[in-house]
Automatic annotation (TrEMBL):
Function: Associates with the EF-Tu.GDP complex and induces the exchange of GDP to GTP. It remains bound to the aminoacyl-tRNA.EF-Tu.GTP complex up to the GTP hydrolysis stage on the ribosome.
An annotated GO cellular component: cytoplasm
Biological source species: Arenibacter palladensis
Stated family: Belongs to the EF-Ts family.
Gene3D superfamilies, per database record: 1.10.286.20, DNA helicase RuvA subunit, C-terminal domain, Elongation factor Ts, dimerisation domain
Coiled coil: none
Keywords for the protein's UniProt record, in alphabetical order: Cytoplasm, Elongation factor, Protein biosynthesis
Domain of life: Bacteria
Protein's UniProt name: Elongation factor Ts
Record gene name: tsf
Translation elongation factor EFTs/EF1B dimerisation domain residues: 73-274
Organism lineage string: Bacteria, Pseudomonadati, Bacteroidota, Flavobacteriia, Flavobacteriales
Amino acid sequence: MAKITAAEVNKLRQTTGAGMMDCKNALVEAEGDFDLAIEILRKKGQKVAAKRADRDSSEGAAIAKVNADNTTGVIISLNCETDFVAKNDTFVALANDLADLALNFDTKEDFLNADYKGITVQDKLTEQTGVIGEKIEIGGFSKLSAPFVGSYIHAGNKIATLVGLSAAVEGADVAAKDVAMQAAAMNPVALNEEGVDQSIIDKEIEIAKDQLRQEGKPEAMLDNIAKGKLNRFFKDNTLVNQDFIKDSKQSVAQYVKSVDSKLEVTGFKRVALG
């Protein structure tokens, strides 16, 4: 049997993130063959992943990243099963590392198939499932491009947002972060009225009409009153129409225009865990 040194165990541990005993056992099984030991650990991860495939992985870390010229941003959530793992420094570091890589890809599928330190992202997730003993997967994947993109990550990495602005004017960085914080806190359903899904509109109108009927309002009045309630829904639930959380006397759209008269919010993305 090949003699396994502490240096070899440490090298395998640094490469895979696996525990010391798992690394030692893999090297013993591989008779000192480093690459074979890595493969043994990956196969262990595959077995654990198969066993935990149906587990709920609603915990994790939502991370937003923006490229160097602030024109493209991405959010990923690296999901796990428990809050204990989600707060682990190594887990959060991996989430940040993967988010940096995700900036280079437009779809979740392409990202999962991308190379990460010699293996695919998906294989890395499977490997980490074996190392950690929990289901590890990419949950959310959202990308946004605009003349200026800003980001915000809520404390604890539970919510991450991106906001696009129409121009990279002076003050755009502060405005984008403020609006990204707004999107995190207020969870709008869409950017504006035009972006609200018709099924949501139909549901809100029906709810309003049902309430009015219960109040005894005449059927002939229902449409007009329901439209008024729908407008209130738009104000409360679309990003640019919401009251700005830092100054409720103005809407988000008005706040952005106070930074620059031609500035507009062009889009946003929001990924939340739990």
